Structure to design on (244 residues):
């Protein structure tokens, strides 16, 4: 069941949707509210456009209509950000029919979801990555042999993807730095983003997905909500959010 919330966010929030059941409502919501700019629409796939709709809806939780409509740019490495310097950080991910958006009032945030499937990567390479990650304290409690086996590796992979998004340099840079020897000089490679200590968590949205969330450690817990698939509920919550 979709969850709703009318209190303003105090920590990290994750909003997710299955477009098989909510896609039409999202499209109608965008038409009726005008939350999408030309930049959000032109040249975008349905998936990309609907991701922007969810992001705009989630931004309404801050009670600022200007923030909802704030332009979005991309950093050199591709990470999107709001042009409002006081606005929250956000991260997006999509896989199959599912879309997820994470928003943090402040501090870094990264999210990744992956449809449960067999990854097209050799067992040898999976084991290598699992060993390197374990050496750096990522999923250290999981034996590397197990981490290179099916769902366990996919779970680890989402953590690495989410780390790359929170850091802003992407999965390629994360995989490169995993190769470095873990010592005092490299101890903070995967425990800090800038000056912020981070926490890497598994994220369970549905049994169809593996997921991970990276947030500033000081933020503690995170809240997860499914975007309402009923148009009337979606519109009512949006209006309530914007009137705060």
């Amino acid at each position: 069941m979709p969850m709703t919330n009318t209190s303003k966010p105090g920590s990290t929030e994750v909003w997710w949707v299955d477009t098989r059941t909510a896609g039409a409502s999202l499209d109608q919501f965008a038409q009726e509210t005008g939350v999408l700019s030309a930049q959000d629409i032109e040249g975008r796939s349905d998936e990309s456009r609907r991701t922007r709709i969810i992001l705009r809806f989630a931004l309404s939780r801050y009670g600022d209509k200007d923030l909802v409509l704030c332009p979005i740019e991309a950093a050199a490495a591709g990470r999107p950000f709001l042009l409002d310097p006081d606005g929250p950080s956000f991260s997006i991910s999509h896989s199959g029919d599912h879309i997820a958006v994470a928003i943090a009032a402040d501090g870094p945030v990264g999210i990744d979801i992956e449809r449960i499937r067999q990854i097209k990567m050799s067992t040898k390479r999976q084991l290598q990555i699992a060993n390197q990650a374990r050496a750096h304290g990522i999923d250290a409690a999981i034996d590397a042999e197990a981490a290179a086996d099916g769902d366990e590796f996919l779970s680890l992979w989402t953590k690495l993807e989410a780390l790359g998004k929170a850091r802003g340099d992407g999965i390629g840079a994360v995989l490169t730095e995993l190769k470095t020897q873990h010592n005092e000089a490299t101890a903070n490679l995967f425990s800090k983003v800038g000056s912020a200590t981070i926490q890497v968590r598994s994220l369970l949205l549905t049994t169809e997905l593996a997921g991970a969330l990276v947030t500033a450690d000081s933020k503690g817990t995170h809240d997860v909500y499914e975007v309402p698939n009923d148009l009337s509920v979606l519109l009512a919550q949006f209006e309530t959010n914007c009137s705060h």
About this structure: Residues 12-242 form one domain. The chain has nine helices and ten strands. The mean pLDDT is 89.
